[in-house]
Queue: 2 jobs
Job 1
Amino acid sequence: MRKRCKLRLTSKVVLLLTFGVSSAWAGSKEHLISIRNMQFEPAAVNVNIGDMVIWKNEDLVPHSATAKGVFDSGILESDKSYKFVVKKKGSFEYICSFHPTMKAMIKVR
Ligand SMILES: [Cu+2]
């Protein structure tokens, strides 16, 4: 009887720990932005400080995700990704430095 109780308690503790860890993970999200057909998709994302934004170039030509003074992927070859952890609040417009008509925005709350 006692042993059973102990086991139950232990599984509860494990459950709590698991929840604790997963909610810590959920605290910072990942946002995937595809670069496809000469466009950023989605063109606007809302993120929180600490979130990670990941751009993936799904085109055959190189692109970049560039917001001067905030982030810059540099040359992003086909099939490559760039990750950026958001650190400050604001609205950041960015472009592809190779194709400046490609524009998009990140809003940081
Ligand atoms: Cu481009």
Job 2
Amino acid sequence: MMDSKKAPMTASERTETDRVREFACRSCGATLVYHAGTRDLKCEYCGTEQSIDTSAVSAEEHELDELQKKPHAVGFGLETRSFKCDNCGATTACPANIVSTKCVFCGSSYVLTGDHPPDIIRPETLIPFQVDKDSAIGKFRSWIRGLWFRPNDLKRISRLSDITGVYTPFWTFDSNASSNWTADAGYYYYETETYTAHENGRSVTKTRQVQRTRWVPSSGAHTAFYDDELICASAGIYFEMMQRVYPFDLKALTPYQPELLSGWLAEEYNVEPLPAWEIASKNINNKEYRACAIQVPGDTHRNLRVNTTHDSITWKHVLLPVWLAAYQYRAKTYRFLVNGQTGLIQGDAPWSWWKIGFAVAAALALATLGYYFFQGGP
Ligand SMILES: [Zn+2]
Ligand SMILES: [Zn+2]
């Protein structure tokens, strides 16, 4: 039944009306969208393709202290509308040519609209989507088929309900790390020790070899260049989940161009660059600690103290391609991610406890059989 009363315009309808044709199709005037796996924009209506001019762009890395001093290009460089999700905290930038009515990260429809242009630092580089929507759906189908210990009807009745490509925000940092370390290097040596034992009611004196450690103060230095230490700045995807679709091949990073976002969603970063550097420098310091531990001579060490300083720190804001998706199985929603560069897929799926129980019982039975076999039977 049709509702005759006109409801107030929703955010998505406004987005439709306010559509800005920044990348207009030469043939039909529709908005061109970035075509995954290519260097082209493509018209979804008439199929016209137009290659993206990459001749005039370059990506620069920034010094860390530039953050306070120098103004930066802000926003995504194309008309976007921001949606901040009340539920998960993610802010999604939605180009004018796509309609978004609910949060792509948590599925919540309680989203607030932000009409202001985002004042985020513009990304320097991104990895364009290589996996298109059809391949992402194909990945889902073969993934769900290949899972073990799942309900029999999972692949038959699980229904893909949502799949959206989102450029997710990251920071990468480069640094020259220099570490000085001090430690007690331990060298093992053996001493012969006499002791008294009781044998057949008599005390006897015996000897044994005992390991001792000689501690020698030692010190050293270690330096290394760290390239592209990657820090996730997403609020919508938990880092643990994101890590499951790692790695991204950062060699494929290309200078940012707004065209590459046309028709795709992007998340605005939720972690500012300085707090991100705090995390990155801790990660690098931990790697330096391990590198210094290897340098300590001897058989073992104690009291290792490492002092690491960073030099020539540079940073970039990076967008990486991720397909976010959800499927329904028996009225429950399960979420999964597809790496938009490599196609690696990870996600949640229901278990079949009956099958797991059976497998455990079978394994126990086999183990029992094996035990009797090696014991020569009962
Ligand atoms: Zn067209
Ligand atoms: Zn959300």
